[in-house]
Write a structure and sequence with these properties.
mainly alpha, 12 helices
């Protein structure tokens, strides 16, 4: 009887610890935390030992995407305002994209819209009738605007990039991960935070100029970083998605202006607002309908 030697597979001897799950989020952040100096050990913390593969249902699996310092987050925020942000993925989201910065950028924008809108309303009320109110009166908050801001900002900043990533994956475009898509959209909304603060100024023309600047800067940033991804698709028709994204971005910018910064004094300062908010005319009726739809 002849015997044949068979070499054992080393992967079978490793046991369950040798099994790994493929990440749908992208492995850049997980690899970066192991290959760069961004680990806890390099910061002076002790570790229990070498990291082991974890499942996507555990908190440890997502920890690398939130392991980023404040300096890096701030740099990635203001970099979206620079003309060189067209190569944002390769120049600024290295060594890996994160989720910490986009989440807090969107959350800060929500509170900026809510607080600044309430402040603008109080200023408009005081300037309209100084005898009926006092500068020392407490600011009245409309918490319906807070829920509106949460739904609008999180839907556009989180749901839209995830849906776009899923659609591109279905079409066979896999040039970026879902984390990179969320990072681009989240950091791209940073410009709206300072604009929200400046829109407290009760001058219609100034507010429209500020909203227009924010729309152009954030729109250019998104187009410059998303279009190369769309252009990598085999089907040329995929590039037309950028037109839909621009229209959607313009609609969101208009919603920011109408829903949160349409409070004016009785005697407007400067040029009259082209979109009436008193319900007069077809445009005014459209604005009132938009407000009711978001508040419902």
């Amino acid at each position: 009887m002849a015997y044949v030697s068979i070499e054992s597979d080393e992967r079978m001897e490793e046991g369950p610890e040798g099994l790994q799950f493929q990440s749908f989020l992208g492995t850049d952040a997980r690899n970066a935390s192991n290959t760069t100096g961004g680990t806890n050990a390099s910061r002076g913390y002790t570790t229990d030992g070498p990291s082991k593969p974890t499942g996507f249902w555990t908190i440890e699996y997502y920890q690398p995407y939130f392991d980023v310092d404040t300096k890096t987050v701030l740099r990635r925020c203001y970099s979206t305002l620079l003309p060189t942000s067209s190569s944002y993925l390769t120049q600024h989201l290295t060594p890996a994209a994160d989720l910490y910065g986009p989440f807090w950028t969107l959350t800060t924008l929500i509170f900026a819209l809510f607080v600044c809108s309430s402040l603008a309303s109080s200023i408009a009320a005081y300037l309209s009738d100084p005898d009926a109110s006092s500068p020392t009166d407490p600011i009245e908050y409309d918490f319906g605007l807070l829920s509106t801001a949460v739904g609008l900002v999180y839907t556009y900043g989180l749901a839209i990039p995830v849906l776009l990533w899923l659609g591109l994956r279905y079409l066979g475009v896999g040039e970026w991960s879902v984390v990179e898509a969320v990072a681009v959209w989240g950091y791209g909304q940073f410009i709206w935070i300072p604009v929200s603060l400046l829109c407290v100024i009760p001058i219609p023309l100034v507010r429209w100029i500020l909203v227009g600047i924010a729309f152009l800067l954030s729109g250019y940033f998104l187009v410059a970083n998303v279009y190369p991804i769309l252009a990598s698709a085999d089907a040329k028709a995929v590039r037309l998605i950028i037109v839909l994204l621009v229209i959607l971005h313009a609609a969101v910018a208009l919603c920011f202006k109408v829903l949160f910064f349409s409070y004016y004094i009785v005697k407007e300062i400067g040029v009259k607002d082209p979109l009436p908010t008193t319900g007069e005319g077809a445009e005014g009726a459209a604005m009132m309908l938009l407000r009711r739809w978001f508040s419902s």
